[in-house]
Every structure is written in C-alpha cells, then in structure tokens.
Specification:
The protein is mostly helical and 462 residues long. It has 3 domains: 69 residues, no CATH class; 242 residues, Glycosyltransferase, CATH 1.50.10; 59 residues, no CATH class. Helix content is 49%, strand content 6%. The strands form 4 sheets. It has a 3-stranded antiparallel β-sheet. Strands 6-9-10 form a 3-stranded antiparallel β-sheet. α8 packs antiparallel against α9. The radius of gyration is 23 Å and the shape is globular.
Length: 462
C-alpha cells in the first residue's frame, strides 16, 4: 500500500507535468516551496483536474488558480512540540567551567524548544495527501525553509540532545530513522517523498552507539540492531562495487554515492534546469542530474571535490562527476559501522554475526589502506575510479578516518602522520577553523575557508 501511495505522490512531487508547469512558471521564489505544499484532494483527482486544463495551463493565472484550489501552504502538516524532557539547567552544563562558554551553551540548549516538531496525525491517516513522510516521534528541524528532519544533521542533533540529557527525545530521533529503514529500506536524505531518491552519509549506527554510551539502554540497542543491519545491507546492495585483483577476484568492496535519478531535484528544480541549459543532448543532461543528486547524497552539496580536477572546466559545476569518486569519508563510515555492529552482536550473544561483521571490518580497513592511504603524503585521499589514482588534493575529509579508527589498533604513527600532513598544507593556521578545501577560486559552500563544525568535530574527535 505504501509503495502505491509513494508512486502516486511521485507523479506530483518528483516528476511529471504538474511539477514542470509550476516550477517553470517561477510562481514561487523557491523551488522547495511548491513541493512542500500538501494536497487538498487525493493524487488521482489532482492529476485528472490538471489534465482537464489542457493548454490553458500555460496561462499563469489559470495555473495559479489550480495550485490555490488543490494545494495547501507548506508547513501545515507539522505541529510545534515542547519536549517534556527539556530542563532549564541540565547537570552536564556544570562541567563547562568557563562562564562565557557555559552561557553560550545554555543559549543553544534553549533553542531545542524552538525547533522541535511533531507530525500531525492526519499525515499518518492520509499519507497520500502529503510530501512529508510520516514518522511517529517528535524530531528537531534545521529551521528556515527546512521543515523536515535530515539524516546526517540528526547525527549531531543527537549528540546535543544527549548532552542536554534529553534522553526520550534522543530515542525518538533514532526511532524515526529506524522507522524509515523499516518502511523504505534505508534512511532517505530527509523526511520528504522527493528525498526517497537518495540517502545521506550512513551515520545511524554511530548514533545508536552514542545513545548507548550516553544512557546504557541496552534493551533499546538490541531492539534496533536488526534495523542497523538492514541499513548496512542497503549500502552493500545499492552503493557498493567490488575491487578486483589482477586475476579478477574480489579483494574487498568499496562504496560510492550513486543516486540514479534522471530528472532535476524537485526541491532545486530551477537551479538544476539552469545548470544544463546549454546542454542539448538529453542523455548528457540526465547524467548531470544523476551526478548532482549523488553529490547531494554526500552531504557536501556542493564542492569542487565532485568536479573535474583538471582541464579548462576544472571546478566548473557542469563537470560534476560524483560517481567517479570513491569518497574516503563514506568508506570510513562503512568501516566504523561494521566495527560497531560486530561489537553490538557480541553483546547480544550472536557470535556468528560477530564473525561476519568483524570480517567486514577487516576488509574495510584493508580497503582504506590499499585504496585511500597515500604512503608518500601520510594521509588518506579520495580515489578516482576512472583515472585509477588518488585525488591528491586537500579536503578536510582526508582526515575523517581518524574519527572512524579505520586503521590497526597497534598503529600509533598514523594519527601523527596525518597531523604532519595538515601542518604541511597549512590548514591548522586558519583562525576560523579547518578549511573545507583549499580551492580558493571556488564559489561552492563546501570549499575554501568555509569551516563546517561537523567536519571539525570529527577531525578533533579523531
């Protein structure tokens, strides 16, 4: 039943004549506005009403009347929610000795009350009227135009909730992501039907581990352990490729971001259409859109990391080639996921699964060593699968395997060598924090001296 509903909703919110007509008309200043609007009538009725308009829909007044008649304003499907486990001054904040830092942290703590939302019950009863995907528990939104949960945002949100001692809210955040895996097979980019075309960095397993370390709630961990395994299998089945030796035998799997959509992203429709405006070949246009969606799956949307690194179109977004990049951070995440799942199965007493995931962890470490590690520079790099070589360029992601501990336990020289690499690159001298890249000519947000706290946190933790 859910598959049928999603298929119908996709004809309105993901592709099709209604989406094209509204987005091409520039009726709303933001492409995301329309695809966040809920339906007043079921999808079949709405599609038939649009078809009945025929060529008259080219008149902006007719189209606007159709939208006003058949859609509600965005945001009506959510309710502001006051978290019951929020307290004025959790004891963890007493650990912050500096008065100014403690005051700043408490200010952030108070923002939880402004950003918590709950999905209206009607979304569950009538999912066929909403682009918002139903989840059963309250969650935290980023704010602004982002009115839904986002996958890898939730990783750092959970860390903050745990520090704020909001354990029930934390559990609800995890349960919502587990609900996505249970009903859709994976965690989508965010909580909208149009995000079901892609995921984001797979951090649900570390989230569960963080929750366990913060609460000791073993019963809950064992409850969601099958979900963690199911999500892991999604990445193995949908995002992995075999690395073969000279005899054609598989040495280990490697992972790439690889969304296969062949249309513009609904929430960024006009921007994606503008990018391919000068590309006449439809196959080439579709390939660009697939590469863009895949870059959005990385969480780094956008960065020169996914663009051509040479030639006249270097750093040009039209040269985007995400599929060709084997990302060091994604493979590090999959590495740590295998290690955590193995340890959780050990706690549960399923030793066959322990052996399975321990073997996968060892293969992942081998993959990191043989595919990503550059012995000369003393750091990990992305691997260019087309050119069969490292992308020998600084990105802050080069150091993320330190966070994932994707190297042998007895190896105490690797962290020091990575630190020396960062010293040589001069990235430790930036006053605003670690730069995301050194592509100073880039205008992308995941580049140059834009310092992203999530990345700095992971490097610092490593």
């Amino acid at each position: 039943m859910l598959y049928y509903v999603i298929t119908l909703l996709s004809q309105i919110y993901c592709n099709g004549p209604i989406l094209k007509a509204v987005q091409d008309s520039h009726m709303f200043p933001d492409s995301k506005h329309f695809v966040d609007m809920s339906l007043k009538f079921d999808p079949v009725t709405t599609l038939r009403a649009f078809d009945a308009l025929g060529d008259t829909v080219k008149d902006i007044a007719v189209l606007r009347l159709f939208v006003d008649t058949h859609f509600n304003p965005p945001g009506s499907e959510l309710i502001e929610w006051y978290p019951e486990d929020w307290a004025d001054f959790p004891s963890n904040f007493l650990r912050i000795n500096d008065y100014h830092l403690r005051r700043w942290a408490l200010h952030l703590h108070r923002i939880w009350r402004d950003l918590c939302r709950r999905v209206r019950d009607d979304v569950h009863k009538n999912q066929d009227l909403y682009s918002l995907l139903y989840v059963p528990h309250p969650f935290v939104i980023p704010g602004g135009r982002f009115r839904e949960f986002y996958y890898w945002d939730s990783f750092w949100i959970l860390k903050g909730l745990l520090f704020s001692e909001m354990y029930e809210t934390s559990k609800g955040v995890i349960r919502n992501l587990a609900y996505m895996v249970e009903h859709h097979g994976f965690v989508p980019n965010g909580g909208r039907v149009y995000y079901l075309i892609r995921s984001q960095p797979p951090l649900l397993t570390p989230m569960v581990y963080d929750y366990y370390m913060g609460t000791g709630d073993l019963d809950f961990v064992l409850e969601v352990l099958p979900i963690l395994e199911k999500e892991y299998q999604f990445w193995v089945g949908q995002r992995a490729s075999p690395f073969l030796d000279e005899d054609g035998n598989e040495k280990f799997p490697f992972f790439r971001y690889r969304a296969t959509i062949k249309t513009p992203r609904p929430e960024s429709y006009r921007e994606d259409m503008e990018l391919v405006r000068e590309i006449g070949n439809e196959t080439e246009r579709e390939m660009v859109w697939s590469q863009i969606a895949s870059a959005a799956e990385t969480g780094w949307d956008f960065s020169t990391r996914w663009f051509s690194q040479e030639g006249h179109d270097r750093h040009d977004m039209k040269s985007i080639r995400t599929w060709s990049v084997v990302p060091v951070d994604l493979n590090a995440f999959m590495c740590v996921n295998a290690r955590i799942i193995a340890s959780l199965f050990e706690i549960s007493g399923d030793f066959n699964k322990v052996l399975l995931y321990q073997s996968r962890y060892e293969k992942a470490k081998r993959q990191m060593r043989e595919m990503h590690w550059n012995e000369t520079d003393g750091v990990w790099y992305d691997y260019d699968i087309e050119r069969k070589m490292h992308s020998n360029t600084y990105y802050v992601s080069n150091a993320l395997p330190l966070y994932a501990k994707c190297y042998d336990d007895e190896d105490d020289t690797t962290p020091h060598r990575v630190y020396q690499y960062m010293e040589r690159e001069g990235v430790l001298n930036f006053t605003k924090g670690l730069p995301t890249s050194l592509a100073m000519g880039s205008e992308q947000q995941w580049d140059k001296d834009n310092a992203w706290p999530p990345m700095i946190h992971m490097v610092r933790w490593g």
